[in-house]
Amino acid sequence: MKIAGWLTRLVAGQVDRSECAVRNCWEQWTREGTHARKTGSGVTRKSTRRDDRRIMRQALVDPTVTCSTIGADVGVTIVPQTISRHLAEANLKSKRPFRALSLTTEHRQLRLQWCQAR
């Protein structure tokens, strides 16, 4: 479109992008002959794939362990939020231990009798 002589504003409207994005893309095309994104953009990973597998294994061995404990056991120096995100990506949900034991049928009957008597 730019080669055909379109204005940057019209190209941006057609491709549903900002004028700045179209201008930058056009400048890169005229300068380098490519429109590809630069490699290496974004934050570098702190953990390797092997570390990620060890995190998953640790979470599967003990589902009630915390993310901080997993990081310490695995030996990876990443924040607990990152470990939590890795577990969420693997569809591993957090499991908390029960705060109280569930009532047995006998306990339920005794409670019901106590309530009915009062």
From TrEMBL:
<feature type="domain" description="Transposase Tc1-like">
    <location>
        <begin position="52"/>
        <end position="117"/>
    </location>
</feature>
<dbReference type="GO" id="GO:0006313">
    <property type="term" value="P:DNA transposition"/>
</dbReference>
<dbReference type="GO" id="GO:0015074">
    <property type="term" value="P:DNA integration"/>
</dbReference>
<dbReference type="InterPro" id="IPR002492">
    <property type="entry name" value="Transposase_Tc1-like"/>
</dbReference>
<dbReference type="Pfam" id="PF01498">
    <property type="entry name" value="HTH_Tnp_Tc3_2"/>
</dbReference>
<dbReference type="GO" id="GO:0003677">
    <property type="term" value="F:DNA binding"/>
</dbReference>
<protein>
    <submittedName>
        <fullName>Transposable element Tc1 transposase</fullName>
    </submittedName>
</protein>
